[in-house]
Amino acid sequence: MDRLLEIAERIRRCARCRLHETRRLAVPGEGRAEKGVMIVGEAPGEKEDEEGRPFVGPAGKLLTAILARHGVDRGRDVFITNVVKCRPPGNREPLEDEIAACTPYLVEQIAAVRPRLIIALGVHSARTLMGLAGRKIAKIADVRGKCFEVRIGAVDTTLCVTYHPAAALYNPKLRGALEEDLARFIGGGGGLLKYM
Questions:
Q1: CATH number of residue 43's parent domain
Q2: pLDDT tens for residues 146-166?
Q3: Whole-structure pTM over 0.90, yes or no?
């Protein structure tokens, strides 16, 4: 069985934290890993919990549209997942112990994909991934729009950080920054294409 599929099956059966008690479906992630690019969000929302797929609600539609504008097919060109694999009740922010329970799965997914580029969407994703690389951040504004050469487990990769699309939906002032960051990370020969 494909490594990512095996990890996904374990995520679907996972009971490591309280979130398994309220979820409908766990959301392991999806997409092709051949391009070596990962996008990592924070946690599933209501639509994701219903479908078992990442970024299918309003924030996902915004992300998909931005990717498409830059010639990136989310199903073909990237592997998309979240730090936390089950929806926190009421779409609240994930708690530290919930993040800690899911982090080993994320590390395994990174090892399976061996991404040359990881795009962290949102503060929890940025903190978790930077933490795995041995770096700490206080707030997303400190790292937003920046890329870092990091090592996560045995994988050397480039980690780029931006706002979560949900934040851009709630605060339109952030939308321009999100679009600008993603355009730089994935657009043209200097972005995602150089990692493929």
A1: 3.40.470.10
A2: 999 999 999 999 999 999 999
A3: yes
As a residue count, the chain comes to 196
SS3 83: coil
* Mean pLDDT score, 102-109: 98
pLDDT at residue 34 in the model: 66
For the purposes of burial, counting CB atoms within 10 Å of the CB of 187, is it exposed (0-12), middle (13-18) or buried (19 or more)? middle
DSSP letter assigned to residue 70:
T
* Three-state secondary structure call for residue 186: helix
| Cα torsion through 94, 99, 100, 104, rounded to 10 | 160
CA–CA distance, 154 with 158 (Å, rounded to integer): 13
Give the H or E element holding residue 176.
Answer: helix 172-186
Q: Coil, strand, or helix at residue 11?
A: helix
Number of domains present in the structure of the chain: 1
